[in-house]
Amino acid sequence: MTGGRVRTGIVVTMMAVVALSGCSALRTAPSSAPSVSLQDPTGGQSLEEARNQLSSIEGLSDVSIEEEKTVSGLNEHHEVSIAATVEDASAAPAFVDQLAQLGWSVNEAEPDTGVFIRLRTSPQLAIGDVAKERGWSEAAYTTSTAELKQLVLLSPNELKERFGPWPGEAP
């Protein structure tokens, strides 16, 4: 009987160790294993290359482009954020498409949240309305304030439809 108790004790202890190590692995896996594809050197361009390209676009000033990560629960999400001032507001529609393609071409991490564009114009146009007019039917935006009119988030589904799989070609 004593041998059976010892074996039972060992089995219970081993099951507890396995169960606890499994729980521990579940807690750490999301932070060590990203939920999106990371850099693909065979396509697109690096963030630095995209910065150089953005700064060379005529008609834009005060430009920036960043790859940003957010965490929701245990999931990591990525987006590319692009900001610029448009010198001639009438040129804003063409810049929406060009900047969307530029953002989709950054190969640091797949922007599973989309490409976020901030275009400052004078007078300030509702950039989300401009994007909708350009065929971006899933564009997410609000026009409640002048500052919010500058912003639009373009969905990864529409980016894939227009520019192919991530990372897309640079414009």
Mean residue pLDDT: 82
Residues in β-strands, percent? 15-25%
Strand runs, count: 4
Question: Uncertain regions: pLDDT < 50 for 5+ in a row?
Answer: 1-40
Order of helices and strands: HHEEHEHEH
Rg, Å, rounded:
23 Å
- Backbone structural class: alpha+beta
The biggest beta sheet reads: 4 strands, mixed
Helical content class: 40-55%
List keywords for this structure.
single chain; 171 residues; alpha+beta; 4-stranded mixed sheet; 5 helices; 21% strand; disordered N terminus
Topology, element by element:
Elements: H1 2-32, H2 47-55, E1 60-72, E2 75-86, H3 92-105, E3 114-120, H4 127-133, E4 151-154, H5 156-163
Parallel strand pairs: 2-3
Antiparallel strand pairs: 1-2, 3-4
Summarize this structure briefly.
By secondary structure, the protein is of the alpha+beta class. Helices cover 40% and strands 21% of the residues. It has helices at residues 2-32, 47-55, 92-105, 127-133, 156-163, and strands spanning 60-72, 75-86, 114-120, 151-154.
Overview of the structural elements:
By secondary structure, this protein is an alpha+beta fold. It has a domain at 47-163. The protein has helices spanning 2-32, 47-55, 92-105, 127-133, 156-163, and strands at residues 60-72, 75-86, 114-120, 151-154. The chain has a four-stranded mixed sheet with strand order 1-2-3-4. Helix 3 (92-105) packs across helix 4. The radius of gyration is 23 Å and the shape is globular. 27% of the residues are buried.
